[in-house]
Amino acid sequence: MRFQPLHVLTLTFLFVLGTANALRAEPPVRSTGPWKMEALKKTPQATWGETKGLVREVYYEGEPYKGKPTRVFAYFSRPKDGTGPFPAMLLVHGGGGQAFAEWANLWAERGYVALAMDTAGQGPGRKRLEDGGPDQGDDAKFRDFTDAEAPEMWTYHAVAAVVRGHSFLAAQPEVDREKIGITGISWGGYLTCIVSGIDDRLKVSVPVYGCGHLAENSTWLSRFEKMSPEQRARWTKFFDPGEYLAGVSCPILFVNGTNDFAYPLDSYQKSYRHVKGPVDLCVTVRMPHGHQQGWAPKEIGLFADSVFKGGAPLARLGKLETVEGQARASVLSKTPIARGQLHYTTDTGAWQKREWKSLDATVRDGIVAGAIPGDRPIVYYLTVTDDRGAVSSSEHAEMGK
């Protein structure tokens, strides 16, 4: 059903009111954990490699590992035309991944400078660097460690590599250092959540799949079950994104699917609720998990453009409410809404295995509403799709027996 846009005066009032409230809000409480941000914000030493098309190889200074200096490999890209300064994006790969030249090129074609770094101690073609940091295997991520050994862990080095990548980007003459954002996929989304909470220079963030509360529910529960309570608490204290998301101060869009094998919706919801400011969600039914699938959603580029280039923002859904058997949420949108839907599952058990169904919802007078089926228990949420094909979601809600 087609949405009749809200009256322009109402939209203007709501955006101005939101801006005024944001200006009055207290700054987020930011924990930087074991990372020494003052040092990481300094421009790292770097050497350039080969250039192919819009993409150039670069190696920059990493954190010391086992008492020895390290380098981080990355692909740097820039738009074909113009001298800038351009907005820029940090691109953080996931497990089993690498620095992706294709990903960096995609952002250059969008008009951005980009830096796609490797977080696994690898160089081009996944070849292990002699002076690389720790690898990204699960044994490295979840091994036992003491407080003093935290700087030897993979998460510590990967986060530091991303923050140093930000510092490198900010020093490049073609980059607008006040317009640098981040997006990451899977373990890269996990890293994006942490970096967004500790690096106050970021202006936009889009974690895909990745979230926190991993010891409570995730595909790695068996890893945590093998830890002692002290080990589990230490890992969570230092390296779970739930410890850092309250520090996010930039616009943030969480992208995930209903059945993600690694990052289920319960841990996902706990994670984005840590953010003190507005949160945008794009949760789609059965979104596949992968690098190409993780950088493909159009919502990511549109969200960045809305912050950096004055593009129309994604529609934003308000608080999900239940009124007389209907799920309802307000809709704030500068673009026409083409469709509303209610998505639900009556299954219980593992989130990854639940079957989701979708029903049409009405969008009228700034409200999206859909009838909730009578089966119980039930989990449900609402989405709207605008005339660009961009999806925005509400939080999910649960009704028990």
Written account of the structure:
The structure is a single chain. The protein has two domains: 8-16 and 316-399, Immunoglobulins (Immunoglobulin-like, Sandwich), CATH 2.60.40; 31-308, Alpha/Beta hydrolase fold, catalytic domain (Rossmann fold, 3-Layer(aba) Sandwich). The chain contains eleven helices and 18 strands. It has helices spanning 8-24, 37-40, 101-109, 138-142, 154-170, 187-198, 221-225, 229-239, 265-272, 291-295, 298-308; strands at residues 46-52, 55-61, 71-77, 86-92, 113-117, 175-185, 204-208, 252-257, 279-284, 316-317, 321-323, 326-332, 337-345, 357-364, 367-371, 378-386, 391-393, 397-399. Helix 5 packs across helix 6 (187-198). The longest helix is centred in the N-terminal third of the chain and has 17 residues, at 8-24.
Query: What is the typical, i.e. mean, pLDDT?
Result: 93
Strands, count: 18
In CATH's first tier, which class of the largest domain applies?
Answer: Alpha Beta
Query: How many domains is the backbone divided into?
Result: 2
Q: Looking at the structure, what is the overall shape? A: globular
- Helix-strand category: alpha+beta
Distinct helical segment count: 11
Query: What kind of sheet is the major sheet?
Result: 9 strands, mixed
- Which value, in Å, is the CA radius of gyration? 21 Å
